[in-house]
């Protein structure tokens, strides 16, 4: 079964695929039974899901987890799509490429970084601060992480290259 993006999911779809675990919360039904309200994500968006069975045990498995394999079906509740989870397995972050699960900027990160470098280097008058910025921009592993990082988990610049774009926008 080929992966399908969250944006492409339709009511009635069955799937077996990996998602980013955006959030989860252990709640209780009116009858006092625990269940998990889970939000799954990929590069195209997020969708909520429900885990009705063994919720307290599964929650323990999810603590500290970023990615999960989900077997389930798409249903709807009050006109909104949601995943009814049949099986869920926590995955190791080591086996996952985060770029597949996060939205990305449409701007070229190399060009954005070059704009930020020029702006900083052209406008910093203090020689010690200028040397610090040159060291910062000259650290290639750091710059690679900087280009990939989102600026925040919510509200603004929440995508790959977001931290770089945010930094440029406030400079």
Written overview of the protein:
- The protein is of the alpha+beta class.
- It contains five helices and five strands.
- It has helices spanning 55-62, 109-123, 127-138, 140-148, 162-170; strands at 14-28, 34-42, 45-51, 67-77, 80-91.
- Strands 1-2-3-5-4 form a five-stranded mixed barrel.
- The longest helix is centred in the last third of the chain and has 15 residues, at 109-123.
- The termini are far apart.
- The mean pLDDT is 92.
Terminal CA distance:
46 Å
Question: Largest sheet, order of strands side by side?
Answer: 1-2-3-5-4
Major β-sheet annotation: 5 strands, mixed, barrel
Give the topology string: H per helix, E per strand. EEEHEEHHHH
Using the alpha-carbon principal axes, give the shape: elongated
Quick rundown:
With 171 residues, the protein is an alpha+beta fold. Helices cover 31% and strands 32% of the residues.
Topology:
Blueprint: E1 14-28, E2 34-42, E3 45-51, H1 55-62, E4 67-77, E5 80-91, H2 109-123, H3 127-138, H4 140-148, H5 162-170
Parallel strand pairs: 3-5
Antiparallel strand pairs: 1-2, 1-4, 2-3, 4-5
Helix pairs in contact: 2-5
Q: What are its keywords?
A:
5 strands; 5-stranded mixed beta barrel; 5 helices; single chain; alpha+beta
């Amino acid at each position: 079964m080929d992966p399908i993006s969250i944006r492409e999911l339709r009511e009635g779809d069955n799937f077996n695929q990996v998602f980013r675990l955006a959030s989860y919360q252990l709640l209780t039904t009116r009858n006092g039974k625990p269940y998990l309200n889970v939000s799954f994500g990929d590069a195209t968006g997020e969708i909520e899901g429900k885990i009705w069975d063994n919720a307290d045990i599964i929650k323990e498995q999810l603590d500290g987890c970023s990615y999960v394999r989900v077997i389930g079906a798409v249903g709807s509740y009050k006109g909104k799509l949601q995943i009814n989870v049949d099986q869920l397995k926590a995955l190791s972050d080591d086996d996952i490429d985060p770029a597949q699960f996060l939205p990305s900027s449409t701007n070229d990160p190399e060009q954005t970084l070059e704009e930020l470098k020029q702006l900083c280097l052209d406008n910093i008058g203090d020689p010690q601060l200028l040397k610090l910025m040159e060291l910062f921009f000259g650290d290639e592993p750091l710059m690679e992480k900087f280009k990939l990082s989102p600026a925040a988990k919510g509200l603004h610049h929440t995508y790959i290259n977001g931290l770089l774009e945010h930094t440029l926008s406030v400079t």
